[in-house]
Protein backbone atom coordinates (compact mmCIF):
# COMPACT_ATOMS: atom_id res chain seq x y z
CA UNK A 1 0.00 0.00 0.00
CA UNK A 2 1.50 3.29 -1.13
CA UNK A 3 1.12 6.39 0.99
CA UNK A 4 -0.29 9.67 -0.26
CA UNK A 5 2.43 11.57 1.57
CA UNK A 6 5.10 13.18 -0.56
CA UNK A 7 8.50 11.52 -0.61
CA UNK A 8 9.86 14.88 0.55
CA UNK A 9 7.57 14.84 3.60
CA UNK A 10 8.66 11.32 4.43
CA UNK A 11 12.41 11.91 4.21
CA UNK A 12 12.20 15.30 5.94
CA UNK A 13 12.03 13.48 9.29
CA UNK A 14 15.60 13.04 10.64
CA UNK A 15 15.03 9.61 12.22
CA UNK A 16 13.70 8.22 8.95
CA UNK A 17 16.74 9.59 7.11
CA UNK A 18 18.95 7.92 9.71
CA UNK A 19 17.19 4.60 9.16
CA UNK A 20 17.56 4.97 5.38
CA UNK A 21 21.28 5.72 5.82
CA UNK A 22 21.73 2.61 7.95
CA UNK A 23 19.80 0.44 5.48
CA UNK A 24 21.89 1.87 2.63
CA UNK A 25 24.92 0.30 4.28
CA UNK A 26 23.28 -3.06 5.04
CA UNK A 27 19.97 -4.73 5.76
CA UNK A 28 18.97 -4.70 9.42
CA UNK A 29 16.35 -6.16 11.70
CA UNK A 30 14.17 -3.93 13.88
CA UNK A 31 16.26 -4.82 16.95
CA UNK A 32 19.49 -3.94 15.14
CA UNK A 33 17.99 -0.59 14.10
CA UNK A 34 16.89 0.04 17.70
CA UNK A 35 20.48 -0.49 18.86
CA UNK A 36 22.00 1.59 16.06
CA UNK A 37 19.60 4.53 16.37
CA UNK A 38 19.00 4.61 20.12
CA UNK A 39 15.26 4.91 19.47
CA UNK A 40 12.63 2.76 21.11
CA UNK A 41 11.37 -0.35 19.34
CA UNK A 42 7.90 1.18 18.81
CA UNK A 43 9.54 4.33 17.39
CA UNK A 44 11.67 2.38 14.93
CA UNK A 45 8.68 0.24 13.94
CA UNK A 46 6.56 3.35 13.31
CA UNK A 47 9.21 4.86 11.03
CA UNK A 48 9.72 1.55 9.22
CA UNK A 49 5.98 1.30 8.60
CA UNK A 50 5.96 4.78 7.02
CA UNK A 51 9.05 3.99 4.94
CA UNK A 52 7.51 0.68 3.85
CA UNK A 53 4.23 2.34 2.84
CA UNK A 54 6.26 4.80 0.74
CA UNK A 55 8.07 1.92 -0.95
CA UNK A 56 11.44 2.97 0.47
CA UNK A 57 12.02 -0.26 2.37
CA UNK A 58 11.12 -3.88 1.86
CA UNK A 59 10.95 -6.54 4.55
CA UNK A 60 11.78 -10.24 4.44
CA UNK A 61 11.39 -12.85 7.12
CA UNK A 62 14.62 -14.61 8.01
CA UNK A 63 14.24 -17.28 10.65
CA UNK A 64 12.35 -15.56 13.46
CA UNK A 65 13.22 -11.98 12.59
CA UNK A 66 12.11 -9.51 9.97
CA UNK A 67 14.94 -7.91 8.03
CA UNK A 68 14.51 -4.54 6.31
CA UNK A 69 16.21 -3.59 3.05
CA UNK A 70 16.51 -0.25 1.29
CA UNK A 71 14.48 0.12 -1.89
CA UNK A 72 15.83 3.37 -3.36
CA UNK A 73 13.62 3.68 -6.46
CA UNK A 74 11.18 6.19 -4.86
CA UNK A 75 14.18 8.45 -4.20
CA UNK A 76 14.47 9.01 -7.96
CA UNK A 77 11.88 11.79 -7.50
CA UNK A 78 14.30 13.56 -5.16
CA UNK A 79 17.17 12.95 -7.56
CA UNK A 80 15.22 14.52 -10.45
CA UNK A 81 14.38 17.52 -8.29
CA UNK A 82 18.06 17.98 -7.32
CA UNK A 83 19.41 17.77 -10.88
CA UNK A 84 19.09 21.51 -11.69
CA UNK A 85 20.84 22.35 -8.42
CA UNK A 86 23.72 20.00 -9.22
CA UNK A 87 24.10 21.72 -12.58
CA UNK A 88 23.95 25.13 -10.90
CA UNK A 89 26.74 24.21 -8.49
CA UNK A 90 28.80 22.52 -11.17
CA UNK A 91 28.63 25.67 -13.33
CA UNK A 92 29.39 27.96 -10.39
CA UNK A 93 32.29 25.85 -9.17
CA UNK A 94 33.71 25.76 -12.70
CA UNK A 95 33.51 29.58 -12.81
CA UNK A 96 35.20 29.81 -9.41
CA UNK A 97 37.94 27.45 -10.56
CA UNK A 98 38.55 29.60 -13.65
CA UNK A 99 38.65 32.76 -11.51
CA UNK A 100 41.13 31.24 -9.05
CA UNK A 101 43.38 29.97 -11.84
CA UNK A 102 43.35 33.47 -13.39
CA UNK A 103 44.17 35.06 -10.01
CA UNK A 104 47.01 32.59 -9.47
CA UNK A 105 48.43 33.26 -12.91
CA UNK A 106 48.44 37.04 -12.24
CA UNK A 107 50.41 36.64 -8.97
From TrEMBL:
Name of the protein this chain belongs to: Transcriptional regulator
Pfam family, one: HTH_5
Record SUPFAM superfamilies: Winged helix' DNA-binding domain
Keywords assigned: DNA-binding, Transcription, Transcription regulation
Keyword GTP-binding: no
Gene Ontology MF: a single term: DNA binding
SMART domains, per database record: HTH_ARSR (SM00418)
Keyword Transcription: yes
Domain spans labelled HTH arsR-type: 1-90
Amino acid sequence: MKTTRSIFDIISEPNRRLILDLLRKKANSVNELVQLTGMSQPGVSKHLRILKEAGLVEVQSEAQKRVYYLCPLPLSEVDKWLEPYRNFWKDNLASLDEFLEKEEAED
